[in-house]
UniProtKB/TrEMBL annotation:
<dbReference type="InterPro" id="IPR024983">
    <property type="entry name" value="CHAT_dom"/>
</dbReference>
<dbReference type="InterPro" id="IPR019734">
    <property type="entry name" value="TPR_rpt"/>
</dbReference>
<dbReference type="InterPro" id="IPR011990">
    <property type="entry name" value="TPR-like_helical_dom_sf"/>
</dbReference>
<protein>
    <submittedName>
        <fullName>CHAT domain-containing protein</fullName>
    </submittedName>
</protein>
<dbReference type="Pfam" id="PF12770">
    <property type="entry name" value="CHAT"/>
</dbReference>
<feature type="domain" description="CHAT">
    <location>
        <begin position="621"/>
        <end position="849"/>
    </location>
</feature>
Amino acid sequence: MAPPDAIEAALRWRDEATAAPQEALREAERLLSGAAPDGELRVLARHIAALAAVELGRVDEARRHVRLGLSTAQRGDRPKRAAQLQLTLAWIELERGATGASWANLAAAEPHLPAEDRPRATCLRGLLHCQRGHHRDARLRLTSALVHLDGDRRWKANALLGRGLANLYTNRLEEAEQDLADAERIFIDGGRGARAAGCRHNRGCVAFRAGDLPRALRLFEQAVAAGLDVTANPEALVDRGEALAAAGLTRHARAVMEQASQRLAATGRQGRLAETRLALAECALRDGDPAAAAEAASAARRLFRGQKRPAWAALASAIVWQAKLRSGQSTRYALSAARRAANACEDFGWRAAAAELRLTAGRTAQLAGLTSVARKLLGRCADLRELAVPPQLRALGWLAEALLAEQEGNTARLLRACRAGLKAVDGQAAGMAAFEMRVHALGLGDELGAVAVRAALRIGDPQLVLRWTERSRASALHRRALRPPSDPRLNASLVRLRGAVLDAQRAADPKRAMNTVAELEEQVRHRAMLVEGRTDRLRAPAEIGEISAELGDAALLSLFSESGRLFAVSIVDGEAALHVLGPEAAAESQAVRLRHLLARQACGVDSRAAPMFEHGVALAAAELQAQLLAPVLPALKRGRELVVVPTGRLHLMPWAALPACRGNPVTVSPSIRCWLGGAERARAANPAGGKAWIAGPRLDHAEREVRTLHHRGGGRLLTGSGARTDRVLSALDGARVAHLAAHGHFRDDQPLLSCLDLADGPLYAHDLDGLRRSPTTVVLSACDVGKSAISRGDQLSGLTATLLDRGTATVIASVVPVPDERTVEVMLTLHDGLDAGLPPAAALAEAQARHGETGFICIGYGGG
């Protein structure tokens, strides 16, 4: 028999094994090497080893220790120790996701447990109810257990953690946050940093369900920094992947989830693979791949059913039917199955998935002519608009209400619903300092705006149409971050990325070097999502009087599309008119053709082919002018300035190539609100503000260009090795005019990684996001950097959009290549005009007309 002191010491190690698992394992090995074959110390040593192994994520090893300990306890007729081990085995099976085995072990252990362990068994029973989706029973069991766990701090924290999760899944989010925060404090006080970090991670899940995506991502990041080992807890990767997918980073999300799948398999947690497969299905759905989503969700549903987890099976069914409806299924059977899946989802607390499925099913029913079915589905979804739910869900409810009103022909009710829905969407975006996250979050605003625009078109009132096109257009730019995001880790990641790009240019192994660059790019993109802050007040859409006052003699043309047709609202001499311009595809096709031909000309063509290219350019330009500019052509022929708000791929149009625009000032703005905001910033600019002239490396004529401009206009000059990122950003901050002659690279896949080449590597759009006061006027004489990525709602992303977001009034940049030698002359003439007092759009028009160029556009505000 082991001495009492040795038994007491072993019991202390058992109680502390989860706080110091590595040390506990070493102690268990020491005890096992010297304990008697059937001794109590051997049983306790196995118990210590099992608890430490499960804490380290090695559940298969933990099971082995428990089974060996059970065998020893049973041979030695120690029912109390055997029951305690079986309770631990129930915990381990729960960790593995094997709920059936966990229930069986718990039932076998309970009759033999000592009184002090029975509240732990009650706690574990509550956790099992939570795992199976019986969240009401889980809350009751765990609340009951907590009454008896005051003296057992570790299990009290476990019970609070479990109840917090049950509250999370039943949408009691404030209670969930409180329970998880209390559990985190207890774990910290007990020296269990890893468990505390797990609570911090779960608080991120609460924030995610509450619709606070920035906070969720920050909490996930903080949990890892606090000691959450994602290799031992791959489930955390799944949660992070879901948040990344919701933020629009679907490629990164999929990579994270695949990593989670591999780790779950490696750590013996195949039971949790179902959740990963379901998360991948949701990711595929966001990526527009419903076939892959249906396949993955169906596989996950089979696994959940096999594990007797009806709540998760209900969620998987909702994703299956969401995917099938998006694939085109619209039969009564499909809609009925979707309705049942949504009801089951809601019963288990998956409110968002239920709402999204009802909305999709309702729209499908409307398109199929099943109006009564649509009314029922949309009505259930519309109920959300009055509930205390996250803003995104309220917006979904208002969208459903708008679709119901559209079906019933009630325009006033429809517009009220769209107005309320956009308010909910804007409220969510107010807390997002990260520009890319705002762009993604405002996608639902485009759907609400589209419903309202359809109603306005049916009425035929041009002012109403203009008001509603403006409400949802380029809305991310209308909410500027109140202060520049500041994140030392993001800045450090950008520095590492710049260095990696330079290293890749001279690397012996280019493939490996580019893989490093790609990894660092993902780090930068992820860190940019974590910046904290709020945005400024949303500017209301302007009325015709305000717009006309700012226009003066200029004409305005606001383009938009609906159901594949292109429309425009024009304002000339204070009069608004609505126009139908024909197929959107025809205009976009000609615009692409025009840009292609101009790019080929810029690269140089054989003299024999030159007339063919000139004819092609003239033909495309004439057709675009006939389709797009007819409403304002009389005004342009009188030499009036044009302000154009494009849509879709027309944002990339070289407008100066159109005959009526040659020599005429043309301003291209993402929205009228952006144009008016630029006017305010231009007027508020300090006329005595400085100028910055910057030349990047490896660009012919760049240094001559900026040295000449500096000689004429004074200011700060940065060339050669002096044109480093930190110095350039310092020169840009607060400048009145900034001119950058540097190679540019537009990234359609990751627009905020579009960049300009400087001496120490690329200057990214992310770098510009840190400016306190962006220059009033920025001229980018590099090729193609005037481009932007265009997403739903004409949301723009790229270098120019970032500058406008940070407060620049005017950006002059190219949307097609311009030969270096001709760029110099255009730029010199442009700045001569600016120095002579010409507004930016007029100075650019004169410069391009004099030198026969058409590739530059004036973006934002071009007036003076």
